[in-house]
Every structure is written in C-alpha cells, then in structure tokens.
Amino acid sequence: MPALEGQTLGVVGGGQLGRMLGEAASPLGVDVVVLDPTPEAPASRVADQIVADFDDPEALAELADRSDALTFEIELADPDGLETAAAEAGVPVHPSPDTLRLIEDKLVQKRHMRAAGVPCPAFREAGSVDELGSALDELGYPAMLKARTGGYDGRGNAPIHGPDDVEAAFAAVGGDAMVEAFVDFDRELSVIGCVGREEIDAFPVTETIHEEEILRRTVSPARTRQDIREQAREVAVDVLDELEGRGVYGIELFEREGEILLNEIAPRPHNSGHWTIEGASTSQFEQHVRAVLGAPTGSTELRAPTVSANILGDVDEPQPANLQGSEAVLASDRAAMHWYGKREVRPLRKMGHFTISGPQEAVVDRLLNRASKLADELTFRTDG
Amino acid sequence: MPALEGQTLGVVGGGQLGRMLGEAASPLGVDVVVLDPTPEAPASRVADQIVADFDDPEALAELADRSDALTFEIELADPDGLETAAAEAGVPVHPSPDTLRLIEDKLVQKRHMRAAGVPCPAFREAGSVDELGSALDELGYPAMLKARTGGYDGRGNAPIHGPDDVEAAFAAVGGDAMVEAFVDFDRELSVIGCVGREEIDAFPVTETIHEEEILRRTVSPARTRQDIREQAREVAVDVLDELEGRGVYGIELFEREGEILLNEIAPRPHNSGHWTIEGASTSQFEQHVRAVLGAPTGSTELRAPTVSANILGDVDEPQPANLQGSEAVLASDRAAMHWYGKREVRPLRKMGHFTISGPQEAVVDRLLNRASKLADELTFRTDG
User: Fold this and answer.
1) ipTM of the prediction
2) Is B306 within 8 Å of A281 (Cβ atoms)?
3) Which backbone phi and psi does B271 adopt, to 5 degrees?
C-alpha cells in the first residue's frame, strides 16, 4: 500500500459532491482531478478540472492517466467508459462499474435486491402503458412511476393517484419505467454505508425530510426507536453486501409500521450524509476518499447530534445567485455553512447547505427548529 | 455588508497556513488567492496563486485588485507594500499594517506591550556586543538573545548560558537584537485570539510543548489550573486590545509560579491553533476568513479535548518526502491527518500535523500518549 498523501483521485463529475470530496481530500494530501462538462464547475475551486463530457473517451483516458484511482459522484457516469479507461491506465475504479450498471437501472437494482432478500416495496416493470395498467391492477393505487434510468431529485418520477393519471404519468416519464406501490411511510431514513478494504461500516441512521421529492432537512440521529435504527443498519449492510467495490453509498429507506423497506441506492456520497462533516468523527467525503484509495477508513461514530438544511433556489427563473440571510447562519452557534459556488440560481437548484450541531445531549427537535427558522429566512428572491 | 459567499480573500504567503485558510474558505464560498514566490506552494492546491516575491509591488497590486480584502500568513509580509496596494485598490487589510509593523520587531512589540501593562519577561535592547554585555549584567544568566526581526521557529534565537557565550551568540543572531531574561517556566501556553467587527474573543487556552524551540505537541485544554487559564485569557485579551485590525492572532505565553508572562505574538493563525479544526466549534482558519472579511465570527467553544502533533522532517539532508507510518494515524480512532503537500522534506521542516480528539470527558494525558506513540512511528528516513 502506498501512503495516502501524494495520491491523486480522479472523479467523474465536478458538482457539489466533487467539491466536498476535494475539500476532504486536501488535508489528507490527496489531489483531486474532476471531469465535468461545465467550465468552472463547483469542484474546480479545490480540484483540477478536465472540461469534457462525462463519457468522453479521451477525457476519461486523461483522467485515468493522471489518477491513482477513479471514482464518480454522479450516476450518469459511463460504466463502460470508466472500465476501459481504468484498465488501459492500470488503475482501479471504485465502486465497481458493475455496481454502477446495477444501480443506474432502478428496475435491475430492485430486482437484484429483492432476490437477495432485501425488503423492497412491491414493484413491477412498466415498459408500456398496457404493462403499467396491468401492474397497477396488481399493486393498486396510489403508486409511483419511475423512469428506470436518469432520474434524480424527483425528476423522472410521476405519482399515479388513480386510473385517470396513468397515460399522463407514462408520457411524463417517457419510455422504460417501473412502477412501485406507494409506501405510506411513517418516516424516511437514510444510511450512509462504507465499504473499505476489508470492513463494511455505516454511519448513524439519519432521518430525511423531503418536500416535492427533494431533500430539505436531515436529522441525525434519526428520531425513531433504537430497534428501528438497528433494523435500518442491518438492511443497509445487506445492501452493501450485494455491491462490488469500495466507497461510500447512500441507502435511502422507508420506515413503515416498524419495518424497513429499501427506497433507493446511490453509489456515491449522498446529500443525506452531508451532516457527517460536522456530526461524525469522519465525514462521508473523507471516508470515500480513503476507501476508494484503499487507505484505512475512519470512525463513523456520532460526534454531535446534527441537523442539516439544504439551501435551494427559491426563484422562478434562473438568475445570478445572491443569497440573502446567510449572515444569520454564520452568527448562529454551532452552525456551519457549505456553499457550492454556483453563480446562477435556478428553481429548486441545490446551492448549498448548512448544519446546526449540538452538544452530545442536545435535543434534535430544537436543532431542527433552529435550522428551519434560519432556512426560512434565506432567499435568493430580490422582489421580497 | 455583502454576503460572505462569493467574496475573494487575498493572502500574502502560500504555505501551510494559506492552505488551511483555503480549505476553510471553500465551504464558506470564499475564494482565496495567495501570493508566494515558490511555484506550486502548499496553498495552491486550494487557492489560486500569484507567483512572485512577497513584497513585489505589481504582484501586490494584482492581489489587491482580485480580492475583497487582504491578509497575510507570514510576518515577512511587507506592511508598506500591503498598505499601498490596498489603498489603491480600495480594499481593507486585516490585521492592520501598523500591527504588522509593531509585531515584526520583537523589541518594539515587547516595549509596546510592557507599556500597556502586559506582563513580559525582563528584556533589554542589544544592538552591539557591549550593549548586550551591559544588559546581561542587569538581567543575569541564562538569557535568550533574539533577532529583532525575521526569526521564527527558534531561528534567530540564541541562548546565552554564561559570559563565554556572549560573543558567539551575538554573531549567530547577527545584528539588531534584544535580550530577554530566560524564563524558567512551568508550562508554555498559547491563546488563539480573534478580533471581529465588534467582538474580541479567544479560543480555549492551549498547552504547547516545544523541543529545540520548535512546537511538537499541543494539548487543549491546557493541563493547568482554571485560574491560570483565566489569567492567560485575560492577558491575551489585553494584548488584543493593543492590536489594530481584525483577524486571528496567536499569543504565546509562559506560565511561571502561577503567573502569566507574554512570550510572542503572531498576527495570523498559529501552529498552536491547528487543533481548533477538530477541537473547537469554529477553526482558527475559518475564524480568520470570517473576521478579515467582516462576517460574524463563530463560536470558539471547545468541541472536544484535542491533542496535536507536528510532523517534522527527521532527515539530515533534503530529500523527496515519503512519509512512513501515516497509515497507523489514519487507522486510529478520532485521528485527523493534515498534510501540507510539500514534496521535499528538510531537517525539521513542518510537513504536516495530526490531531487526536476525545469525547468531552476524555483525559488529555491519554490523548497525548496516543498521539506521541503514533508520532514516534512516523519517519521520512529511508535508512531505518
């Protein structure tokens, strides 16, 4: 094993996840190169950037040549291209391109996990309107139609409340899809898992709060029973056992009537794990850098109860990003700001996040209240 | 007040302090530009770099033009050049160039602080061997001869144990000097102070452990009585009251027989404050970025008892830096590695540091033992 310091990590994708990977890599002495088509991508602040499409073979080859290992921060990464570039340069890719292939197709992902005994909501393939209709006869209403590939942050998803919605939903999702019985969950949870050289580990279970299918807040540790947290962790470890390659994974779960069901898997650091920067002994980003490069992973223990709040574009049209209200966040005790460096704000675009941590004995409801009050005062609108 | 995110901080000096400033600035959405004559200086990993001498007028003008505020991470910064460049670009410099002038001359610094009522060791000017001899007649032996300007990490200092050392010490220090009564301290302490827009604050008092006048370990909180810690903080605040301009200051102190004496002041983040990255609610680097740019400063409260250990070059000759033993640090619970990205190791060069934190109730002696064991296993020597 070469020492970690002095190594270079190549990352497909240079958004906020790439930026936070770069921020975590620097103290470790790891250089980061990202591949992203947008010039001056968020990660370019703390990483070198190759400006090219995610699947550009020459750019992937350059990325591999400059790196000691490859990884990706977006599911849009091309598994074949990564595999080829890595093999030619003789460097590893983590997680494995096979894992990316498995996860990028939500139907394949769910079939695999169900076959492995991971509890999943009922689902069916829906390759046509007719097939969707038959599936719904079995699953009932409401249900969620999901594009098999390419969806994120609610994009590619369409709820179906009754038979009248079927055709419009199928048209909206457009093509290959799967349909899932709607889960009337009590709570949404997330586990950030980590696969190291020999060890599988997981960060404390997080509660996630979405609106319009976009993550708004996380609460760590999750406000649920200890046995539910343990069950969530067990399901996450079962999922990790099925995935090839080292790195950090975001595993989104439903809690319903005391049971855990798998929602979705992300083969990368995940928005629901941003709280670990302040709240855990090692952040998910540092953990990913360590794991991918084959260094020992760090402790995942809780350092402080922590709530995170996403800062989303609250504008109707794209415009230059001028955030109002951030000074109150900075002035708040145990608050930490994370700004992603995007110059343009767009409707619901993720522009940054902040966390509020407490001492060990802190009541997370209070932290959540504080975070929500601060978040409510943040705006990009200039008409207010 | 413009929002912090989107601002640019110009820093004279691009060493490890500049690098850690850049690491702290990125999550805040603050870009950093450093001015440093060494290409690919440590900070260039996370900052833009202007490659030029610290006092190059054109480079200082460019730095000021690109920045919303100027600061420095080395005392070698040129106060006149900074003042001129800042005035022409219409941006502030923090701390004030006057503070830099006051501090860069150790005799002026001590005279000012003594006049302000800050307790200092006895000292005299020593501009010639004769003057040094007369001073020693008053101060007695042992004593420490110090170059008035340019010394750091023990360089520019020469101990005088008796009359036989006087001429050699004066020759070694070379020219304008001051001589200080040797303080037979019980403990060395450090306080990282912070001057914000309106507030003066200080991080918890740190104990510093030097060998050969180079910092080796810090222990936070310091293992001394509560009333001594309070006294140290009061002396630090008295010092800060005398300094103009916002920012973070490192204030090194002696504890002797229940009393606090001022040792030295650094008008910048200081090696003895690196522990704040893991151990305090806000790090000294984030605090400096916030303060210099006029944003609210963060909480300085202790987050976790923390010990830091410097990683110094243990080689006899310069050579490529290949550190052995870092994997054990990474594998250690609650350890955090900070590598400065220097490719060449030299005798006693500061190459990085690591910290070990504990839970709130941790006994710092144990943390210190763990850190020292890990540090003892680190080596750049290839002959071992």
Assistant:
1) 0.95
2) no
3) -50, -35
